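Hi,

Apologies if this is the wrong queue. I'm a grad student, and the batch job for Nucleoside-diphosphate sugar epimerase from Actinomadura craniellae produced an output file that my downstream script rejects. I'm not sure whether the problem is my script or the file. Here is the sequence I used:
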Amino acid sequence: MILVTGATGRVGRNVVAELAAAGERVRALVRDPGRAAPPEGVEVVRGDLADPDSLRPALAGVDAVFLVWPTLAADHAAAGSLKVIAEHARRIVYLSALGVPAEPGGSILGSHTMMERLIEASGLEWTFLRPSGFAANTLMWADEIRSAGAVRWVHAAAARSLIHERDIAAVGARVLTGAGHGGRGYGLTGPQALTQAEQVRLIGEATGRPARFEEITPAEARSMLVTVMPPATVDEILAAHAAMAANPEPVTATVGELTGAPARTFREWARDHAADFR
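Support response: The file is valid. Your script probably expects a header line. Output copied below for reference.
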């Protein structure tokens, strides 16, 4: 039995679908079963990663776990939740991130480092998936593209090797069901690094309505973001975009090596999600 956490999220629900299609026994962990619409044969269980004791019923009979961690929000429960997982399961595949720092800290990437260290010390057989930016993160531009045909944001030249959520899921399913992945960390990316201006243009092509990128200053962006997220997180986001303008995200061939199919392009992702931008 394989337990998938974050099973209603963009990656988790695709992992569930991949495993179910392969005939695996799958259990989907969700906080609200009413929101879940899994494939036929998938068991849905209620649980919250921030509440370690709630995980025990979900882990009964489970051999492997695909862990999507609610970064920062549930970090206080990380050690307890991993202890419970290790009491039941044998293997864990953790959805981390490309570019995790060497030392844990109070940032998003630092939270992933903390989780990796805890997992390494848990006694579980582990594999870390370290994807680049999710192509789905560009959905935050949907309202602007619909209303104005433009995205106002920093660093038009910041280049990311964005990855389709279905490619992350395909790798996750193969690692969960295959051998030889223990103790490995896989950097996963899309097939090319595209600037943010290019990303917006491709979304416009997919929708049939031209879209453009209008660059604003980091100070302007910061004044907007600090109203909805902690200043330290805002500074981390802006610094990352400045870094990607100077040095594009790397591109790896790992998706193809592990799945046998090339990573999907951002153009393909935009076509798959065109309706979300219309």
